[in-house]
Amino acid sequence: MAASPIIASDSRTEWAKTLPYKGRVGIYLLILTESSFFSIFVVAYLFYVGKSLTPPFPRDVLSPPIVNTICLLSSSVTIFLAVRALRSGSIGGFLLWWVVTLALGLEFLIGTAFEWHKLIYHDGLTISTNLFGTTYYSLVGLHALHVTVGLTLIFLVTILTLLGHMEGRHVERVDVLSWYWHFVDAVWIVVFTTVYIIGR
Amino acid sequence: MAGSIEHEIALGAGRERVSLPVLGRIHEWVVTVDHKRLGLMYIVGGLVFFVIAGLEASAIRLQLAVPNAGIVPPDSFNRLMTMHGTTMVFLVGMPILTGFFNYLVPLMIGTRDLAFPRLNAFGFWIWLFGSLLLYFSYIGGDGLYGAGSAPDVGWFAYAPLTERAFSRGNSTDYWILSVFLTSVGSTATAINIIATAFSMRCKGMTLAKMPVLVWLAVIVSFQILIALPPLAAAQVMLLLDRFAGAHFFDTQAGGSAILWQHFFWIFGHPEVYILVLPAFAFANEIIPVFSRKVLFGYEVMVAASAAIAFISLSVWAHHMFSVGMTPAGNSFFVASTMLVSVPTGIKIFNWVGTMWGGKIRFKVPMLFSIAFLLQFLIAGLTGIMLGAAPFDWQLTDTYFVVAHFHYVLVGAILFMIFAAIYYWFPKATGKMLSERLGKWHFWLFLIGYHLTFDTMHFCGLYGMPRRIYTYQPGRGLETLNFVTSLGVIFQAAGVLFLVINVLTSLRSGDSAGSDPWDAWTLEWATTSPPPAYNFASEPVVQSRRPLWDLKHPEDPDWNYE
After folding, report:
1. % pLDDT > 70, chain B
2. Measured on CA atoms in the order B358, B364, B366, B368, is the torsion positive or negative?
């Protein structure tokens, strides 16, 4: 044991390496609190399944958005590949997979827009029509809002990369953003199950 | 990196210069990302709102001092009641406690700031904006409708009274947005505290060597992250109901008013523990130092706190026994509520065990801590009474409930906040608070507190309902209510002594030195007030009480841990 209990430390960096990266801890905690937020909307959705007093009802108007789902879930793979490329020092590979992620996310958002357009103008379902509309638009809309935030951040990183500001040392920060995107995808699995399987 | 540290040092030096113009000094505070300044701003902001909410409570008690008093009209009474509750929870309790954590956690783990200093500044300013929004409702709540001013729906805002049809104007919207924004601030701080404790500890400080206060800060932060979003989510639903025509809590379209109660109390009950665990944290630091003994049962204390936090997530519906749940539901929530008292009891025994055989110094922080122990015990006992569903059916929505939770919020939390102010004021300012004025503060407040809240239990037992603006004479409530209101004068006098104490001590208090209490944790290793960079060189620790090791090299703690 050292003689002096409080001494100046020159091996601080060695010790610091044993501690987790603060950005990683931060994003995990953000995911924890967001999960709590989403779970309340999921509970409200499940609580009101089958309780709408007036049509339209889910089984009449909803069809599972399979293409959207495939696009969003595969974007989790592409963003993982992007981060891996950056970690191995390939800015070009990173940019390629990153733009693919952006495109897949955009497809999901546009697909959701078409789905909502059909529901509103063809089926006459709005947020105030009945409890189904209330819970459907708020849960799917909350998720779509998170997709939009994620896409905005991914877009900003794309611009920064195109301007030549992306370097290998930024990989931890990009990794933190990718965890947010993985979370958005994982939430979609829950939302999909709730809305299109249990709730239909 | 080096540049930013030099910048910090320059800021620290700037604070010493008395010639800095007022505007320049204000500017320094506005743009600061220093955890100590933000912590102090949280605490001072919370204390300002404490005075405001205290005045609201005084107006309520003035109206209730005698039967049929005509001082506060019914609609104003509802507003006062709502504003008092909302203010005390979100604008007083939360900021003061996050303020202390902000200030203390980096110092106690031997680092220079929180993990995300700018996020910390964001949290404070969004909290302040939300707080001001709540009080702006007195002016802006009319909206376009000319109906109502401040919110009058109670701090619990039960549906469907909060729906458009029953709550016109914008007062309820101000309540929603204000509370939502203060929650955003709390969430930012919670993420910051945990990331700091996990990623920024000084060399040698393993998790098992963190001060108990830091452990409790981490546990409380986890609770904030899990328990605050349900309220925020329910508030978003309520906003959708009010502005987009959704039907979440609209009973005419099949919505459920009970669902709001569930969502609110899923937040609301853990919130009680979010507020009281920091009080425990202060007691964990103060009681050992003034008993001159190591905290009894460090590991058990941490485990009991985590158990309280975990169990508290599953007790919420004991606020709802009277809505008519199933017998199985009632039984579950009775059982889980009883279960919380086990780890809580462990903590009380551990504090007594810490004091047992110690060389107790009855300084002001310790006086408040001892009162806290006794009062919290009583609050826990009435909690067990109310946790039994049949007893609750009899006394729910009476003043017995009001007395019970004020015993927790005032008797435990506020007393420990006072203790913490007396204990850490010397560290933050470099000046000691006066013991003489402090003892006046303690005894006046203690007497006032018991006059008010002990008698309130009996009002409840005699059947006086809460949230009413007056009562009839001849029902045996006059004397009790008068005594309850009388206590307010003593409490207000006590707080006045605190204000005088702070102002005179700042001007001419005794110099504190770096370690006035002969304490053991790292915040006492640096100067009072600490420089902007906290520690000139980052410390290295070997045990839970690094300053003990420093002062007693012949018998260091690491031989026993």
Report:
1. 95
2. positive
Residues of B in contact with A169 (CB under 8 A): none
Give, as one character, the DSSP assignment of residue B455.
H
The helix or strand, by DSSP H or E, that contains position A106, with its residue range, turns out to be helix A91-117
pLDDT digits (tens, 9 = 90+) for A164-192: 999 989 999 999 999 999 999 999 999 99
* Residue B268 contacts A, CB cutoff 8 Å: no
Contact A122, A106 (CB under 8 A): no
* ipTM above 0.85 for this complex: yes
B407 — contact with chain A (CB < 8 Å)?
Answer: no
Residue of B nearest to A125 (CA): B246
CA-based nearest residue in chain A for residue B203:
A15
- Nearest CB neighbour to B253, from listed A40, A44, A131: A131
- Cβ atoms within 10 A of the Cβ of B368, count? 27
DSSP-assigned letters across all residues of A9-70: -S-HHHHHHTSPPHHHHHHHHHHHHHHHHHHHHHHHHHHTTT--SSSPPHHHH----HHHHH
pTM (2 d.p.): 0.93
Q: Is the CB of residue B402 less than 8 Å from the CB of residue B466?
A: yes
Rounded distance, CA B130 to CA B142, Å? 18
Say which residues have a Cβ less than 8 Å from residue A110's Cβ, sequence separation at least 6: none
* DSSP track, B467-512: S-S---SSSS-HHHHHHHHHHHHHHHHHHHHHHHHHHHHHHHPPB-
pLDDT in tens, B455-487: 999 999 999 999 999 999 999 999 999 999 999
User: What whole-number distance in Å separates Cα of residue B75 and Cα of residue B68?
Assistant: 15
Close Cβ partners of B247 (under 8 Å, ≥ 6 residues apart): A128, A130, A131, A134, B241, B253, B254, B255
Residue where the block lists tokens 């960079």: B533
- Of the candidates B231, B194, B174, B45, the residue with the CA atom closest to the CA atom of residue B119: B194
The helix/strand/coil state of B342 is helix
